[in-house]
Specification:
mainly alpha, two-stranded parallel sheet, elongated
Length: 228
């Protein structure tokens, strides 16, 4: 790892990439390795807990739990504020929820494994708080309504997400696609799917059709050319 870091620092200058150690993080597996890593890497930040990376999280299970719960708690507060707005601005609150709010979970569901284990407070707030306000109810909605509102507006629903099932599907699809790129760039070729296997999107992989060589023009066209 240290050799890779030194080579990146050296070769990166040729392409205008300057490694900034004060903004770099190295995650070690235990506290025992922290002092040794600081001695070897110098000004690089060292941690044994974890660190946020592009909106996702890398590190120990404890750090992951803390990060996901904090993110879910913040999103729940936003949802509670939308429910308050829905009391007087029903349509505006619905548009904000379907066009902006629900997409905030797309990235973390694709990049954080088992995010469905943390999403219960949000799903409960959607079912028991926001939907009640949208329908003007003071009591919890019937369970069959929850399945109905997850349908798209074209099918008579509201387009509200089922975050539990969506989180499982999103991570599986993202992992399948990432695996294909890994094999392509590391091993020099894409991962091939055998007949009957799916490509991670629930669709069977289509094999390219063999196109045989065909003579240019039909027999009739050749005859017309000879006559001319």
């Amino acid at each position: 790892m240290h050799d890779w870091y030194n080579r990146l620092s050296r070769e990166g200058k040729k392409y205008g990439y300057l490694v900034n150690g004060s903004k770099s993080w190295l995650i070690v597996k235990s506290d025992v390795l922290v002092d040794e890593a600081k001695r070897v890497f110098g000004d690089v930040n060292i941690t044994s807990e974890g660190q946020c990376h592009l909106g996702a999280v890398i590190g120990s299970q404890e750090f992951k739990d803390q990060y996901c719960r904090k993110k879910v708690l913040g999103r729940k507060r936003e949802l509670e504020a939308q429910s308050q707005i829905a009391r007087s601005q029903l349509h505006a609150a619905y548009i904000v929820f379907t066009k902006a709010y629900k997409s905030k979970f797309t990235y973390v569901m694709h990049t954080i494994e088992s995010f469905q284990d943390y999403i219960d407070p949000i799903q409960e707030a959607i079912n028991d708080l926001l939907l009640q306000t949208l329908f003007g109810q003071t009591e919890p909605l019937p369970s069959d309504w929850h399945q109905l509102v997850t349908l798209s507006p074209a099918k008579g629903g509201l387009g509200t997400p089922d975050l539990q099932s969506t989180a499982v599907c999103c991570f599986y699809v993202n992992n399948s696609i990432a695996r294909r790129f890994y094999y392509q760039y590391v091993h020099g070729g894409g991962q091939e799917f055998h007949r009957g296997e799916t490509n991670g999107l629930g669709r069977r992989e289509k094999r390219p059709k063999k196109i045989g060589r065909r003579e240019k023009g039909s027999k009739k066209n050749r005859e017309m050319g000879e006559l001319a």
